[in-house]
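User: Here's a structure from my thesis project, written as structure tokens. My advisor, Dr. K., wants to see whether a designed sequence matches the one we expressed. Can you design one independently, without my sequence as a hint?
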């Protein structure tokens, strides 16, 4: 039986990209798939029907800034109520205030039989409850601890109740984090389906590296949420103290300021699909610690140096370091020493390869989708 499946995501690259393999598997299986999000991310999934609703990432950030005077990107999420307040305002109150009505109208017209929502997205569970259809979580980030999850759950239930809707429980939790990086304390809101993390692959022609020398290659990317050109430039300056080649993937042009790096050592790639970057012969990835970059690198067995910058990134960095698959630093100037240590210590690459094996033990997208559809239809349960 073919379904209409709704993918609901916050309009941020790191939230949407991890769900796309599942969406494309659903399309290949003959299901009709639509994306509920802001048009600013539509280019990432041109084959999906867009249901436009809600604010852009910039509009959402501006609304939280207007209400609180705080940049939500700078807040590290932890179990304290004070630090949870800004993320709750961002993902729950501001986003619902700016887009709940449009989301409900768009989903009512599409009439999905199943909703899959990114773990931070409230439009998905809200519209699924309003229509009375099953929904599942796609958890790109590690699950919140019990106290933090409670803050979000209470706020979400109260805000959705203002729309005359009572939230329902998800039928499953699609988890791209491999067993090797999990802990017994990780708590899931629904039965877990381990889904294989894969680096984002674009729908156009692949990006190719223009040249490659004999030196080790370091990929430098701070992701798409970190807005700190000074940190990116400082990281590049630190790396160039080493005898390495560097691929820099800034999110927007101009993030390197007026630097004119030596083209024999540095290639500025811009915003390129992670699969293409990792396939270009990368030995170490330097990152701000976003889940997508961390999982992509480790799925390819590449160790990391992480400069965690806000939100869930410190938690991601800690998991990487705990299994020996990389190093964590606290400032851009520390990156060169950390990269040198990772390159000189084979144990880091071995640990990354071990995580890659764990990634491969998770369900590929097609099998995860089959499992989800069985559960959503009530034909099976997860033991």
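Assistant: Designed independently from the structure alone:
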């Amino acid at each position: 039986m073919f379904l209409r499946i709704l993918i609901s995501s916050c309009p941020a690259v790191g939230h949407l990209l991890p769900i796309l393999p599942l969406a494309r598997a659903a399309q290949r299986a003959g299901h009709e798939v639509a994306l509920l999000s802001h048009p600013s991310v539509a280019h990432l999934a041109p084959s999906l029907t867009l249901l436009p609703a809600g604010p852009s990432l910039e509009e959402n950030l501006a609304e939280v800034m207007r209400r609180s005077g705080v940049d939500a990107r700078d807040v590290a999420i932890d179990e304290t109520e004070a630090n949870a307040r800004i993320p709750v305002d961002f993902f729950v109150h501001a986003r619902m205030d700016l887009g709940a009505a449009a989301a409900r109208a768009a989903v009512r017209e599409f009439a999905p039989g199943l909703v899959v929502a990114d773990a931070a997205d409230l439009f998905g569970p809200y519209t699924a409850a309003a229509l009375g259809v099953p929904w599942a979580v796609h958890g790109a980030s590690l699950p919140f601890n019990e106290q933090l999850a409670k803050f979000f759950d209470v706020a979400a239930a109260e805000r959705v109740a203002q729309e005359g809707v009572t939230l329902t429980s998800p039928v499953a939790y699609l988890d791209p984090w491999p067993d090797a990086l999990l802990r017994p304390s990780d708590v899931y809101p629904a039965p877990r389906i381990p889904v294989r993390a894969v680096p984002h692959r674009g729908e156009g022609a692949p990006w190719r590296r223009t040249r490659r020398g004999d030196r080790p290659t370091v990929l430098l990317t701070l992701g798409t949420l970190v807005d700190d050109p000074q940190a990116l430039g400082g990281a590049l300056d630190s790396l160039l103290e080493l005898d390495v080649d560097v691929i820099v993937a800034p999110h927007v042009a101009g993030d390197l300021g007026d630097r004119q790096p030596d083209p024999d050592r540095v290639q500025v790639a811009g915003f390129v699909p992670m699969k293409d970057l990792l396939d270009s012969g990368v030995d170490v990835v330097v990152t701000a610690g976003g889940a997508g970059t961390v999982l992509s690198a480790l799925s390819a067995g590449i160790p990391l140096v992480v400069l965690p910058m806000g939100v869930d990134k410190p938690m991601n960095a800690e998991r990487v370091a705990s299994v020996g698959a990389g190093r964590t630093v606290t400032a851009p100037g520390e990156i060169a020493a950390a990269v040198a240590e990772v390159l000189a210590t084979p144990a880091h690459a071995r640990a990354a390869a071990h995580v890659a094996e764990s990634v491969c033990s998770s369900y590929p997208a097609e099998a995860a989708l089959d499992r989800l559809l069985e559960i959503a239809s009530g034909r099976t349960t997860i033991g």
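When you compare it with your expressed construct, this may help: The chain has two domains: 4-197+362-376, 217-360.
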